[in-house]
Design a protein that fits this description.
Layout (H helix, E strand, L loop, with lengths): L2 H10 L4 E2 H11 L1 H4 L7 H10 L3 E7 L6 E6 L1 H16 L7 H7 L6 H29 L7 H33 L17 H5 L35
Antiparallel strand pairs: 1-3, 2-3
C-alpha cells in the first residue's frame, strides 16, 4: 500500500488543490517523520493518480508565478481512498528490524563493543523521545479529534524501544555467557575503531535481541521519528 497515494487522495478530500499546496501540507505535517511518505515523491503519485483516473484536472490558476494546475478527486478516487484507509486501519504492520539479523552475526564483537553500540542507540532514542514530547507540547493547541493519539502512538513505541534497550544492557553479560561461544578479548578492537553515534545512526549496530537465541523482537518505531510535526502543521 502506498502512503503517498493515501495522503494525496486524503488531502483532496478537503477540496481541489494544486500540487504545491499538497506538497506544502506534507511539509507542515512533517509526514516524513511519522509515515513512509517522502515529500519529493508526491508529484509522482499525483501524476499517476491523474493517469489512472483517481483525480482530475479542474482548472489552471495563473498568478504572479508559474501557472498552477488544480486537481480534484473523482468518484473512483474517493472509492480508492476509502479502500486504502480501511485497509490501513485493519492491517497491523510491524516490520522486521535489520539489526536483529546484525545481532545474529555479532559473535566477533566484544561485550564492550556491544554495550557501547546498544547504549549509544538507547541514548539516541531518549533524545528523540525528548524532542518528540517537546514538539507535541507545541502542537497541543492545534490538535483535533484523533490527532493526539497519533502523537501518543509514536511516544509509546519510543518508550518501548528505550525499555528494551535498557533490558538488553542489563541482561547482556548473562546472555553472552549463556551463548557459550568464544569472543575476542575486551581489549581487542575487531573493527579497528571505537563505536560512534554516527555508526549507530547508520543502521549497523544492533537494537533488538537476536533471533534464534531465545529473545523475540519487540515493537519498533519503523518511521524513526526525530522531532514531531511543528505546531504549524497537523492542524486537521
Amino acid at each position: 500500500m502506498s502512503d503517498a497515494r493515501m495522503f494525496v487522495l486524503g488531502a483532496l478530500l478537503r477540496g481541489p488543490m494544486h500540487g504545491h499546496q499538497i506538497r506544502r501540507q506534507a511539509q507542515l505535517d512533517r509526514t516524513e517523520l511519522w509515515t513512509d511518505i517522502k515529500v519529493g515523491s508526491l508529484y509522482g503519485a499525483l501524476h499517476r493518480l491523474v493517469a489512472e483516473g483517481a483525480i482530475e484536472v479542474v482548472r489552471t490558476e495563473q498568478g504572479a508565478g508559474p501557472a498552477r494546475t488544480v486537481y480534484a478527486l473523482t468518484q473512483a478516487g474517493r472509492e480508492e481512498f476509502i479502500a486504502l484507509r480501511d485497509r490501513a486501519l485493519r492491517e497491523v504492520r510491524l516490520r522486521p528490524d535489520p539489526v536483529d539479523l546484525a545481532l545474529h552475526y555479532a559473535d566477533d564483537l566484544t561485550e564492550q563493543d556491544l554495550r557501547a553500540l546498544i547504549g549509544a542507540r538507547r541514548d539516541a532514542l531518549v533524545a528523540r523521545l525528548t524532542a518528540w514530547l517537546h514538539q507535541r507540547e507545541q502542537a497541543e493547541p492545534y490538535l483535533r479529534g484523533l490527532e493526539p493519539m497519533t502523537f501518543d502512538h509514536t511516544t509509546a513505541r519510543l518508550r518501548a524501544e528505550i525499555a528494551w534497550h535498557e533490558s538488553l544492557l542489563e541482561q547482556l553479560p548473562g546472555l553472552l555467557a549463556a551463548d557459550g561461544r568464544a569472543r575476542p578479548p575486551a581489549t581487542e578492537r575487531v573493527h579497528g575503531e571505537a563505536p560512534t553515534t554516527e555508526r549507530v545512526n547508520g543502521g549497523a549496530p544492533a537494537t533488538e535481541a537476536s533471533h534464534g537465541r531465545g529473545q523475540a523482537p519487540t515493537t519498533v518505531a519503523p518511521n524513526d521519528p526525530d522531532p514531531a510535526p511543528t505546531a504549524e502543521g497537523r492542524q486537521g
